[in-house]
Design goal:
Strand content: 15-25%
Domain Extensin-like C-terminal: 46-216
Protein name: Extensin family protein
Number of domains: 1
Radius of gyration: 24 Å
Helix content: 25-40%
Organism: Sphingomonas tabacisoli
Order of helices and strands: HHEEEEEEHEEEHHEEE
Structural class: alpha+beta
Pfam family, one: Extensin-like_C
Largest sheet: 7 strands, mixed
Number of helices: 5
InterPro entries: Extensin-like_C
Distance between the termini: 69 Å
Length: 216
């Protein structure tokens, strides 16, 4: 190493000692781009708006690894009517779901079934798994709390309408109800999958806010 190179090296070391250098062990871990947290300004606005229409519990941000996380999420318990079996949902998904229940499902129940809606039944929301639960492939929107599976509806007159039993119902009122809420969902969510999509969705509507639009 020449005299000039040694001088440059010494100057660099002195500069680092004056500034304290950078301790990478103490530096905050970088966050993936565009990932909102429960404390993000956008999330606060979402929570405030959601609070006017639904009952929910804000959840702490969790990263489970392997592409599975629940950030800026809530546990929704009521959206005009009680909602069963939900875990974490991203706030944007919860807001869209609440609007669908209030403005799509509830009016359709009164119009086509002649009864008020009492409860929405689901198979859940967050689940750390791949698309269609395959062993390999891309993560499902469920893995980021960005999807919900709706299985059925309980009416105040005691009737229960389920996707599995009633999607092909000969009852014109029931069929019109399910077609109407499916159409309403397609206008709100990015992806909507029904029994018409494949056998894996024979018993539920899959609704998510991921890629799209896709409605089947």
């Amino acid at each position: 190493m020449g005299r000039r190179d040694r001088a440059i090296l010494v100057a660099g070391l002195l500069l680092a000692s004056c500034t304290g250098g950078v301790d990478e062990r103490r530096a905050p871990a970088p966050q993936p781009p565009n990932r909102l947290t429960i404390d993000s300004p956008q999330t606060r606005v979402c929570l405030a708006n959601l609070g006017q229409l639904a009952r929910f519990e804000p959840l702490p941000d969790r990263d489970y690894g392997g592409g599975c996380f629940t950030f800026a999420s809530v546990r929704l318990t009521e959206a005009g009517v009680p909602i069963g079996n939900l875990g974490a949902m991203s706030c944007p998904l919860a807001a869209t779901f609440t609007a669908w229940v209030r403005n799509g499902v509830m009016p359709a129940a009164r119009l086509y079934l002649g009864s008020d809606l009492a409860r929405v039944e689901t198979f859940g929301s967050y689940s750390c798994r791949n698309i269609n639960s395959r062993q390999s492939g891309n993560r499902s929107e469920h893995a980021t709390a960005n999807a919900v599976d709706v299985s059925g509806f309980l009416l105040k007159d005691g009737r229960r309408v389920t996707i599995r039993q009633d999607w092909a119902s000969p009852d014109p009122g029931v069929k019109s109800f399910l077609v109407a809420i499916h159409t309403s969902a397609c206008r709100r969510f990015k992806t909507v999958l029904s029994p018409d999509y494949n056998a894996l969705h024979a018993d539920h509507f899959h609704l998510d806010m991921g890629r799209g639009p896709f409605c089947r």
